[in-house]
Amino acid sequence: MNTFSRSALLCALLLPAAPAWALCSSVATAPAAFGTINSTLVRSTVQTASSTNAGLQCTGSLLSLLTSNDHFYATITSSRSGLVGPTGDVIPYTIYANNTTSFPIARGTQFDFAPGGIIDALGLLSGTTPKSVPLYFRTVVGANVAAGLYQETLNIAWSWNYCSGIGIGAICLGRDIGSGVQTLTVSLTVSNDCQITTPNISFASAPVVAGFGTVNQSINIACTKGSNYTVGLDDGQNVLNGRRRMKSAANNYLAYDIFKSAGSVRWGMLSSARRASSDADVNPGAGTGIGSQVFNYNAKVYTDQATPPAASYTDSVILDVQF
Questions:
Q1: What is the pTM of this model?
Q2: What is the pLDDT of residues 256-285, one digit of tens each?
Q3: Smallest Cα–Cα separation from 152: which of 164, 134, 139?
Q4: Are 79 and 106 in a shared domain?
């Protein structure tokens, strides 16, 4: 009888838990643009913008493991104090670390993205897809500025030092330490705008056309700082032979017109029939943004027409401003 003896060889290899590496790097930024905003909104309403990439990008699988020894510093500086336009006007704005006003970033001061859960909330160290740190921007109201492109280039100095690998027992297996400087462009385009006050014209009542008096009134216009413009009045809805006309419900007409200032020159909408900002009766010249320019006019019913049947007569005239 043959006797066979078998023995089993058990091989075991004990490996530590695989570390989760989360390496960061300094990368080119993505610009931030507020878009095109008219001057009135720039002055009166907060505008927002953001950059999806402020120059720091990380890849890894750590989440909520940052300690007091871990830091992601950003120091933002610039040779300017805000968005600067073609005439030197400045639109101030504030930089934020997230999409709230809870974490403003002061220029020239080191800001740490690690405290407050900002990095964790961004998921920057979660997963294997590269993710970038965004920045958020909000304008400060009150800027009375000329139209044009407003820009600022920010210098962002990044410096990071954090535990990049966790082993058994939450032991740090290594630290990712690095730094880099990137530039980020912020822009906003201001468009021309006007605030216009146009009172209605009322000739009241009269039994015959000769009984209607002259109406003397003004149009107030406040246009973008530094803007040169012209103001036109169209011919209304019932013009005939170069005269504006009011119309009754029975399709009868009452001819009238609107004249520049206190004179007899008809105010129209084409070429020289318009009025330039330099021709304003009060504050002539370019727009000031906040101060009104006043354009006086007088309106009269033509007395060389037959008196139409008694009724209520109306017309609608459009005012337009061209830059």
A1: 0.86
A2: 999 999 999 999 999 999 999 999 999 999
A3: 139
A4: yes
How long a stretch of residues is the chain? 323
d(C-alpha 124, C-alpha 97), whole Å: 13
Does the pLDDT of residue 174 top 90, yes or no? no
In contact, 226 and 147? CB cutoff 8 Å: yes
pLDDT band at residue 169 under the 50/70/90 scheme: low
Q: Are 52 and 134 within 8 A, CB to CB?
A: yes
240 with 98, same domain: the answer is no
Same structural domain for residues 57 and 162? yes
Asked if 236 and 315 touch (Cβ cutoff 8 Å), the reply is yes
Domain's final residue, options 168, 191, 214: 191
**24 HSE (CA, 13 A, CB side):** 31
Q: Looking at the predicted structure, is the pLDDT value of residue 152 above 70?
A: yes
Region 192-211: mean pLDDT is: 98
C-alpha to C-alpha distances, 40 to 192, 199, 215, 242, 258, nearest whole angstrom: 8, 21, 31, 36, 29
Domain that holds residue 77: 23-191
The verdict on 54 and 147 lying in the same domain is yes
Residue 54 to residues 27, 30, 157, Cα–Cα distance (Å)? 8, 7, 10
> Both 78 and 224 in a single domain?
no
Instruction: Based on the fold, state whether residues 258 and 220 are members of the same structural domain.
Output: yes
Mean pLDDT of 63-76: 82
